[in-house]
């Protein structure tokens, strides 16, 4: 029995895209205060493994499309999933990373200074930035979810 490497890539990419969209969407539904706490805890870990998950699944969908061939009924869905994951990378770099940088700066200002009258402003800045991150992250999640759905349809073809 020969291994169908297109299906292997497709299923591995589908799992990665599903993981990417599911983990993030749960964070988008909780309160701002809890989301802020989770963001600071998960940021360091996510920035290390996130690029591999997103880029790997995007390349996996593209590889599955190329291995199956242009005449395959799954080709268009795999390409759509690959492009969507590619857009996750672009969106993250140009939209989410700047918000992350501002959040880190505001958090550093809050933790580096002794308690003062300015702390309430910094806390409000963090809450405002967290709300902006929630919106940006939800959009990024939708791109990952679209990729996962397109990958699922491709896997069923």
UniProtKB/TrEMBL annotation:
Residues 1-20 form the signal peptide. The chain crosses the membrane at residues 49-67, 74-97. The keyword Transmembrane applies. The keyword Membrane applies. It comes from the Eukaryota. InterPro entries: Anthrone_oxy. Coiled coil: none annotated. Pfam families: Anthrone_oxy. Keywords: Membrane, Signal, Transmembrane, Transmembrane helix. This is DUF1772 domain-containing protein. It comes from Fusarium floridanum.
């Amino acid at each position: 029995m020969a291994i169908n490497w297109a299906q292997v890539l497709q299923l591995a990419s589908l799992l990665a895209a599903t993981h990417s969209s599911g983990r993030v969407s749960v964070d988008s539904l909780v309160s701002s205060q809890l989301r802020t706490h989770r963001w600071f805890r998960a940021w360091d870990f996510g920035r290390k493994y996130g690029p591999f998950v997103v880029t790997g699944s995007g390349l996996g969908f593209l590889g599955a499309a190329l291995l199956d061939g242009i005449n395959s009924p799954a080709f268009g869905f795999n390409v759509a999933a690959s492009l969507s994951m590619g857009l996750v990378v672009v969106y993250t770099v140009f939209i989410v990373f700047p918000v992350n940088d501002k959040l880190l700066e505001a958090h550093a200002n809050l933790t580096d200074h002794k308690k003062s009258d300015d702390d309430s402003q910094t806390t409000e800045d963090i809450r405002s930035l967290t709300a902006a991150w929630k919106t940006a992250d939800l959009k990024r999640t939708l791109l990952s979810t679209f990729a996962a759905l397109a990958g699922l349809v491709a896997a069923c073809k």
